[in-house]
Sequence to fold (377 residues):
Amino acid sequence: MSAEQEEDDDDRRRLDRRTTFIRLADYTVPEVRKALITTALLVTILGLFLYMIHEVAVAIIAGVVLAIYMIPFQNRAKKRLRNPTLTAIVTIVVVIVPLITVLVYSWVEISGAAAYLSENREDVAARVTEAIQRLPFGEGLEIRDDIPRWVEAVAQRSAAVVDELQETLDIIVLSIAVFLFTTFYVLTDREGIAEYIRSRIPGRYEGLAGRIGRSVRQVTYGALYATFLTQLIKSVIVLAMNLLWDVPLAVVLAIASFFIGFLPIVGSWSIYVPVAVYLMVFRDNVLGGVLMIIVGFFLNTLFISMYLRPRIAAERSGVLNFYWMFIALVTGVYTFGLAGIVIGPILIALLRAVFEAVTDSGRRAPAGTRAAPSPDA
Fold:
């Protein structure tokens, strides 16, 4: 038998085993040995690969998430620009340029506020002292003498942060590059990626793979849509309260509320609570401060984060109900950080898809009816 004929026979047997069920006893000893060696090599190489990319893993996940979220916009832009590469570049620029503009604006405003605080620290200390002394058990407390020490500590910490930033500058630049190229790659070649994954799935798993793919696609869209929408609503509420009580840096604080709300544990409360304290201490506006805390806590933190976000995500996905989407978003973000916005819902959607596939395949058909043919038939 020629080498070409042997290769054709190997391909035929491999195809048969990808499309039909083969018992383990039917494998020959050389095939089992080859499978064990291949598996060991795969595990080793996969471990090395994960170790190689662990520093930029978050950037890769963020790039994929951003690309998934921008696909609808890219599809609309493609109708005008026609060129997929140009469309992907324009889509990324539309997102990145406003983000950079917002960050630069916020940095300039915060730097100005920090400079003012440094120049007027004695007046700030006096007003904070007066506010503390008006509180119960606060009589006699004095912080004026502590201000220089606090400023020195902040200066030392700032210098340390700058040194740490310089040390990690290379990985930051690398992560940004990986993030942008991952987004570009997914936007320009997502159809090829999907086709490759489908071609690697054995025929007997096509039904399960299709169910998993639909579930993952729908929960990802629902979670991202709900997260960005509710973050925008919360930021608008923070901005409205800041403008209502004439809080300095109103726009910057609203922008910070939008971005900081994605982080686990930290939410918009880390913005509206200090602002409420500012109103009560420096403006003598106790009513305004209390109202800001009440509105922020019950509307932003409880209603929007705990109810509205999972409700919208569940309705948009059509896969998970409110309860499971709530569990997915809350525990996902707490466990995996920012990427948990997507990972949490995907994990529960995968669990549901696999569970339904297993239970459906083992369910008996009612008497008098013919069972539906399995994917292997």
Notes: The CA atoms of residues 43 and 49 lie 10 Å apart. Confidence is low (pLDDT under 50) at residues 365-377. The chain is about 80% helix and 0% strand.
